[in-house]
Amino acid sequence: MARVPYLTPDDLAPEDRDLLKRPITLHRALANSPGMARAFGTIGGHIRYGSTLDARLRELAIIQVGYLTRSAYEYSHHCRLGVEQFGVSAEDIHAISRETEAEGNGGFPELETAVLRAAREMVTDMAVGDATYATLEAGIDRSDLVDLIVTIGFYCGVVRILASLQIDVEDDYAPWLEQFPLPA
Question: Which of 40, 113, 125, 165 has the fewest CB neighbours in a 10 Å radius?
């Protein structure tokens, strides 16, 4: 049960009802602070719709953050988004768990391995290491590299918001956790 109420459009001022055009539980909780919800949506929207970073690489990084932090909400949402919209396969998601547990044994190509390692390093070490950064720098342009780092950092924050506000996974995302379980 969330620590703040899940608001509906009727709970909001007319000028803020657009905040719930996608009424997932995270947005319904963040709507308790319309200004913050709007700011949160701005960066999230740029990550998804404005960045030139390859969407598959982005989703692999976000799924890695969700997996490593055991964030059921983030992980389930991005497993679904990755598979349904952004070219991530079921095998990719299973390989992320192997990649995480075996530190590089997921069978991904070099650039994808570096993206996953960058996400792990930012979660556990707070920064991307020099060797990982060099591989990323050789594989994607500077703008996309900055977008990747900001994306990983943003989702490191998102999982902490989800945990602190105790945001519930919606019923239609729960099957993704059955198909792709998080570690105990």
Answer: 125
pLDDT one-digit tens code per residue, 77-131: 999 999 999 999 999 999 999 989 876 678 899 999 999 999 999 999 999 999 9
- State the CB neighbour count (10 A cutoff) for residue 166: 12
From CA 8, how far away is CA 106, in angstroms rounded? 42
Burial status of residue 64 (CB atoms within 10 A of its CB: 0-12, 13-18, 19 or more) = buried
- Which residue, 30, 16, 66, 22, is CA-closest to 165? 30
pTM score of the predicted model? 0.96
88 vs 83: CA distance, rounded Å: 5
Amino acid of residue 8: T
Report CA-CA distances (Å) from 161 to 2, 9, 42, 142, 170.
11, 22, 16, 29, 16
Contact 28, 6 (CB under 8 A): yes
Structure tokens at 100: 């995480």
In the chain, what are the helix, strand and coil shares in percent, each to the nearest 5?
70, 0, 30
Q: Which are the contacts of 15, defined by CB distance < 8 A and separation ≥ 6?
A: none
